[in-house]
Write a structure and sequence with these properties.
The chain has 348 residues and is an alpha/beta fold. It is built from 10 helices and 14 strands. Helix 5 runs antiparallel to helix 10. The termini are far apart. The structure holds NADP nicotinamide-adenine-dinucleotide phosphate. The site of NADP nicotinamide-adenine-dinucleotide phosphate has 21 residues, from helix 1 and helix 4.
Length: 348
């Protein structure tokens, strides 16, 4: 059994080769990303909004050189190397395709698209254009998940029996209209539940069987979802459970329990943000790796720097968040939404 946890292999993000970024859709998470990138070697060259006024406001706030009043203008800037797509889920497909068609590398916010069919379209376009394309599932790229990755790869947990991940928050329609809006592909699953579903995929792979229950908001998106996943290749005894809701907060934790030990990702914040990794042995003794690197949303820098490193290496897909896995995560969420009874207007 492991006596110490492995060290993270993730390079210092502040040493990554610089890219010239264009931020597409300057909303809440784009502001967090801008703050994170400003502390790094990455350069935010341009921002594109549906309105010139919003682009100008964001550019002034973050000292961005070029502000465009349309997404088309942003992706047409020949000096922009990579585009960060930070719009609502409903728009990711169209805007990722727009950037890819302009020859840009793309970092696409989670959930990657509304559904797996849209994800396949984006992946096919990126592969055909030979541009780098990465789902912005930010925990995959930081030190915390790299420690867990090494523990899983070592087999130190024995046979994996149970994986549990929870993402419960209380987010009202007044606080965040987008999350309650079917037109923008809101709901707990795509916004919050994507983290637990992605965590199960990280720990166990793709389930062949999913059982889901849930209920809806008055606006018709999923308010609360609980799902059980089973049938993982090479892991016949493993069962995963996930819960997510927009209606009540709880600890946002995840664990992987095996016959030889368990990993716990508890946190005062979220299992998917920066934090400690705790390995508990069957006798109850534990070892813990401390949090490292930038904290909270400043850790968004890892995903951008990872994409910058891929580009510098001439690679187009991330080994930490493979595009085929992005598609399979969307397939799992499609199935969960089908069982819970949620579809979005105009969904392809
Ligand atoms: N990684 C994380 O921790 C994290 C956290 C929160 C959100 N996210 C993800 O980031 C994405 C954006 O979320 P957010 O919370 O930043 O959203 P937001 O604050 O509502 O901002 C989204 C921006 O998208 C643009 N937009 C384009 N089409 C739109 C439409 N039909 N309706 C409204 N806005 C539209 C708007 O900018 P313009 O009008 O200026 O173009 C808006 O400011 C989502 O995929 C979400 O899941 C990730």
């Amino acid at each position: 059994m492991m006596t110490v946890l492995p060290a993270s292999r993730i390079p210092d993000p502040y040493d990554a080769p610089p890219l010239r970024w264009g931020i597409l859709a300057p909303g809440g998470i784009a502001s967090s990303m801008a703050r994170a990138l400003q502390r790094s070697s990455q350069r935010i060259l341009a921002v594109g909004s549906r309105t010139q006024a919003h682009a100008d406001e964001f550019a002034a706030r973050f000292g961005v050189e070029r502000a465009y009043g349309s997404y088309e203008q942003l992706v047409s800037d020949p000096d922009v190397d990579a585009v960060y797509v930070a719009s609502p889920h409903s728009a990711h497909r169209e805007q990722a395709l727009l950037a890819i068609a302009a020859g840009k590398h793309v970092l696409v916010e989670k959930a990657f698209t509304r559904n797996a069919a849209e994800a396949r379209e984006v992946v096919a376009a990126a592969r055909a254009a030979k541009v780098a394309c990465v789902e912005a599932m930010w925990p995959r790229f930081g030190p915390r998940f790299d420690i867990v990755r090494q523990v899983l790869d070592s087999g130190a947990l024995g046979e994996i029996i149970a994986v549990d991940a929870t993402h419960n928050r209380q987010i009202t329609a007044e606080q965040a209209p987008r999350l309650h809006d079917p037109e923008r592909a809101g709901g707990a699953m795509l916004d919050l539940g994507v983290y637990p579903v992605s965590f199960v995929s990280f720990a166990l792979g793709t389930p062949s069987r999913v059982l889901a229950v849930g209920n809806l908001t008055p606006t018709g998106v999923d308010r609360t979802v609980a799902a059980v996943e089973t049938g993982f290749a090479g892991q016949p005894g493993a069962v995963a459970t996930i819960t997510t809701t927009l209606a009540a907060p709880s600890a946002v934790t995840a664990s992987i329990a095996g016959t030889e030990g368990r990993i716990e990702l508890g946190s005062s914040m979220w299992f998917y943000g920066p934090g400690t990794v705790r390995l508990v042995r069957p006798d109850g003794t534990a070892v813990e790796a401390p949090e490292e690197g930038p904290s909270n949303h400043d850790a968004l820098v890892y995903e951008a720097c990872h994409l910058a490193q891929l580009v510098a290496d001439g690679a187009t897909e991330s080994p930490y968040m493979p595009l085929d896995e992005t598609v399979s995560i969307m397939e799992t969420m499609d199935e969960i939404r089908r069982q819970v009874g949620v579809s979005f207007p105009g969904e392809r």
